[in-house]
Write a structure and sequence with these properties.
This protein is an alpha/beta fold. It contains eleven helices and 21 strands. The strands form four sheets. It has a 15-stranded mixed sheet that branches. A two-stranded antiparallel ribbon has the order 6-9.
Amino acid sequence: MKMQFKQIMLALVATLAAGQAAANVTAAEVLAAPLTSKTWISGASAPTYVVYAGWALGCDANTQRVFTASSVSGTVKPGASAMGNYMAYACKRGGVVSVLYHTIDGGSFNAYAPHLTGTAPDGTAMPTAMKRVQNLGTTACSSSASFVFPSTPAQTVPVSGTCSLSGAVQTDGGPAKPAGGFSDVEGALWGIDVSAAGTEGEAYVNQVFGLAVSTNLYRQLQVAQGIYTGATNAIAVANANAADPNYDPVNAPNISSSQYVSIAQFNGGYQTDWQPILGTAGVGKNVYLARRVATSGTQASSNAFFLENPCASGAPQGQLNPATSADSTGTFIVTQDASTGGVKTKLTNANTAGNFAIGVVSLENTWRGTSDGYRFVKVDGVHPEAGDDPVNGGMARNSSVNANYNFVMEMKSFVANTADSFGATIIPTIAAALGNPALCSDVPRGLFLNPAGGSSCAVGAQVGKGTKFGNNCSPVQLFY
């Protein structure tokens, strides 16, 4: 793996030296690129930027370009919510234009779904078609934004937005089906064997997840747990607001795994109101559970970590089934969203309406600098942002790299048996680069490197001290 990375870096140095006079590829060049240098990947949204960084590692200097189906302006890069769920990345490699289409719509399971038959985790048939951006050479793809890619030297990458989308029938001569992609978790966590459809591999990137609660519930938990007090409940909440304006993780309230299981499992015991957790202040307050759809890697991670589904077997301590929207009652309201953005909106709306809501959100998301009405709490006494700067935010991995916070999943790569030759080559190349980034500082918030990947980045900073050795049903074992 290290040898492969060194070879990639040598190629990068060579292209940097040869390509200083190069110009970013034009839309017309991208459209005219041979099909043999175009491929398509799908799956998880969390690693979008590091996937892009892995792709860009082999590009000739100053040739990169990004396309998106969303209207964008200003500074925006892959992984930003403004970029949307459909992108395409282009550059020249050795002077030849290459294109990587990237669809992150529908969650991690879509890294596998286009190559499977039978029933999907949500009970529906496997999808036979997916959408991707197309017609990259048309006038609809206008340059309206850019970002600086932190290579050496740094490169300004133009972003062209509002490109058209296509589903079942691709009309622009590009790939008709993804070659594979990247997932938050292995296919087995959906109870599906993907080995007949392709090859699953390690991406050597770990993702941190957390329990997010509506802001009003966060404050009420602080009061219930005696972190802040007052003569009345209202005064205690006001004291919390005044004393903890930055929501310092040190002062965060706690939700235990058993408490969340009692909310999130089918027919759980804490689904009448919040009284068991909040006491008097929770009496008569409906329980709002904002979860993801069954095909989401975030939901699969939550099922595995809290409900031991499908990790455990046997009764009575066997795997538990998650509550779904069909299990909603007058006091227990479950919503299922196709995106993390939908969950954050549900938590924010609940807060605005004076309701108490909870859900699972990955830590590449941050509420700081936004109007989002949710905050992360401690899980079993440990906060996923412990050690971060409480005012300016942080990288949301300090407690996870040190194996103190373990709601963490190891990502996977997947190459379908039907993958085109370019895709079959580029996906493992990106996976190698994910675990061995050119710049250690380029590892995004809420993600860190698996020590099994052999990265030279710092252990305890960007590299974790423990690993699950590729099995997300296993506990973390210390590697260092």
